[in-house]
Every structure is written in structure tokens, then in C-alpha cells.
Amino acid sequence: MRDASTVDKKMICADLDGTFIGDDDAMYELLGIIDSQDFLLVFSTGRHLRSTLAFIDEKIVRKPDACICLVGTEVYFLQKGELTPDNGWSQIISEDWEREKIVRLLADIKELLWQDEEWQTRFKISYFLRENQDEVLKEITHRLEKAKLKVSIIYSCDEFLDFLPLKSSKAGAIKYIIDKFNLKKRDVVVCGDSGNDLDMFNLGFKSIIVGNAQPELKNFNGKNAYHAVAQYSAGIIEGLRHFGLI
Fold it and tell me: How far apart are the first and last CA of the chain?
């Protein structure tokens, strides 16, 4: 992990699929910019670490300085060339998390389809929800509130439904990483394309919404948000120019 000298650094935190990934030429151009400008690089993804490392190996991409995996439920820092899990983050998000109670409470909702076990973890419960979305989400919220269960609900791409600890999420994880790196809020840029990136944008960071973003982000007009015309990594480059960072 970088030390207190990072106080003068700037950091780019990018979602992977649909944001950083999608246009290889633009991605490698962006990586060149990141390295030449000495930005800290953080990936924030719904992937697990194994899948993230597979992408890094396949595309011959350098490892990020930190990585947020499984929609903010896992944080890793680059130490001695390896992405190492941060146990402090796990301790923080475990508070008030009652995984089995949530699963039992939702068991009879027929529209919820269980995702493969590789996407189910100690701090993440994942379903597909592809029918009657509005009604089902209202029912779920009602049940959780009535049971007084503290949980974060993230629905994205019109099918992916995740239940996470209330203190987790990409937003919580990025704040944790910023504190670890001793950075200022003004020196952080977040980039994304779908609903599971929205909580990061709501924090008021400089935000880049790439041109191929999902409908749930198309109308987002939060503070410091820039809607790029270009897609994928080219959209990130466009946004960095907009903010005067390159």
C-alpha cells in the first residue's frame, strides 16, 4: 500500500465491465495516461477477485493500487505485487449484517432467481430479477423494513439484484480507500456505466458517466457529474480532459 506521500496524488476509480473494459485501444491509451501522470488506479467491480485477475492476465494490464470487488463487499490493496485482502474492511461491514435472516425472508418471492454460487459470499446475496421489478422491489423493501433488517439493496442492468451490508457498497469502499491513501476528495475521479456505480456518484466526487451507460445513469445530474459522449475508456479520457486533469 502507498504511504502518506500519496497526499499529493490523484486517483481514478473505474468500474470494469462496460466502463474500463470495452475498447482495448482506448483502454491501453488510458493506462498510458494513468502511468505518465502517476495517478493511483483503483478498480471497482461486481466481479470477484479471481475474475478480475483473469482479466488482468488476459489483457496484460498492470495491477491496480487497490481493488473493490463484488460490489463493495471486498477491498484489496496492492502489496509486494499482489492484491491482498483488507480484513479491516470486512470487520466494518459485518456490523448488523444478518445474511441468513434476509435469505429466509425472501425465500417465497417467485420472481427472485438465485445466481450461481460463485456470486454468493459472506457479505453478498445475489439474485436475478427480470419480471414485475417495481412491485417486487416495493415488497422486498417493505419486508426488510418491517423486519428491521439493515441492508443495502442494489438493482442494476434491469436484472441484477444484490443485497449487501448497509455499511458496504462501492461508495463505502471508496471512502475507506481514500482514507487509507490519505487523499483529498477533490483529487478523486470515479467512472462508471450502471446502477451499481450510482452510490459512488452520489458522494459528489468528480464523476464520469461513459457514453454507453445504462438507462439508470443516463439522467443522473448529480454534483460534478460529466456525461461523456465517447464510450468505455475513451469516455474516461474525455471526462479527464473535461475536468482538466490531462
Answer: 25
Q: Is 66 exposed, middle or buried (0-12, 13-18, 19+ CB in 10 A)?
A: buried
Residue 78 DSSP class? E
**Do 67 and 45 form a contact (C-beta atoms < 8 A)?**
yes
Pairing of strands 188-192, 206-209: parallel
Q: How does DSSP classify residue 61?
A: P
| Cell 444478518 -> residue | 98
Beta strand pairing call for 112-114 and 125-129:
antiparallel
The answer for residues whose C-beta is within 8 angstroms of residue 111's C-beta and 6 or more apart is 129, 130, 131, 132, 136
Q: Look up cell 475508456; give the residue.
A: 233
Residue 148 phi, psi (nearest 5): 60, 40
The band of 156, judged by pLDDT with boundaries at 50, 70 and 90, is confident
Please tell me the distance from the alpha carbon of residue 226 to that of residue 212, in angstroms, as a whole number. Answer: 13
Q: Where does the pLDDT of residue 36 fall: very low under 50, low under 70, confident under 90, or very high at 90 and above?
A: very high
In 10 A of CB 117, how many CB atoms? 8
In tens, the pLDDT along 199-216 reads 899 999 999 999 999 988
Predicted structure pTM score: 0.87
Residue 158 has pLDDT above 50, yes or no: yes
Phi and psi dihedrals of 122, rounded to 5? -55, -35
